[in-house]
Please model this.
Amino acid sequence: MMEIPKEVKKIIRDLNKKKFQAFIVGGCVRDSLLKRKPKDWDIATDAKPEDVEKIFKNSFSNNKFGTVTVQTKSKDPTLKEVEITPFRIDEKYSDKRHPDKVKWAKTIEEDLSRRDFTINAIALKDNSETIDPFSGQEDLKKRVIRTVGNPEDRFAEDALRMMRAVRFASVLDFEIDGKTKKAIKNNSVWLQAISKERIRDELIKIIESDKAAEGIDLLRELTLLKYIIPELEEGYKISQNKHHIYDIYEHSLLSLKYAAKKKFNKYVRIAALLHDIGKPRAKRGEGPDSTFYNHEVIGARMTCQILERLKFSKKDIEKIAKLVRYHLFYYHPDEVGESSVRRLVRQVGLENTEELIQVRMCDRIGSGCPKAEPYKLRHLKYIIEKTSKEPISVKSLKISGNDIMKILDMKPGPKIGQILDILLGQVIDDPKRNKKDLLVKEVKRISSFSEKEIESLAKKARKERREIEKKEDNMTKKKYWVS
Model:
């Protein structure tokens, strides 16, 4: 039996004390029965919104469906707010997304009958008694996504449910029931009536799931993908050249599959899916010697158009487009110098370099390569870290050569640099000494030494600094397993 949090139990008891029915419903019941931690908690009741607000003073309501949000003092973020909604029946859905009107229902069974899938139409009493009129628990055991009632009716009411079916299949690793699949194909055109923001949100959840690649292919199979990212289908059954064993579409899916397997973030996953989106339009010729010149440039432009259409943020679009644009970077330890690496880092942004390399790893596995991260990619990581580190320099001191010349009333000369080297050595040993007042005192003390002593101390400080730099470099090499 599922464990009901004390915050939820208390809300149910408070409703029951006022002679109202109350049931835990929706995704939290489904997830709990699957031994998954719910992301939020929902309660259905026969109390009207105004009744709920009277019972729970620390609550608010701002929607036409009568949902009242009760705030708790729980430290668990999933329990800080619990939504309570009256039993209701939804009437006609003119916009294929929202009911034109809702009316309050009398029973929990009526309320459950309006829900999308059987696995989401299970209610639970505080005493753990389940109300399951559509055999949702049986479908949970069979790992099946099935609509409540006639699937044609459910998708005609709310076209986004078609994407939600794919999302649940991807997230839960379930199969979609045959009749439900057929109804999705019959109604897929209605996805065009849904706002791009809602489609984007469902798409991200599919891409962030463990079965991301399978989810995208299911969208294609159910004829939904052409209303979301039709550009992906341009690569379907389009062969590549002698460097690839998969067609463009298969390669993109396998790249995404590896990104999901490695738990890479959504930016890498989306870039892995779209990194070769420009290939079909760039392709010249057929067979093993066909070419795809500039496909990364074309792909970056297409990526921007796709993500803008799906209402991604400007920041996300810029980041993902960069990963697509530069995924084809060339690097070989014996052929590419540090200056070229610095240029790549400037182009893609230091903050994006790790993700760029992850996209390349996905690309490699998606191409059939046995190794995701060969020596040259590890060496590139080493060079990026090496070139991005701030060098140990006298510039970090809280005192400058000009300051020393003023303090000692001296003209420019080698002695100034020698004193700075000595000061830097002292600060490396004890960073707390990097304060201007302390450094001024030390300058005056050092100035009393002979020229030979100052030269010897500076030489020793430079040698110790080189040894520290060498040690740090060796540690970085060891980190990336390079020589």
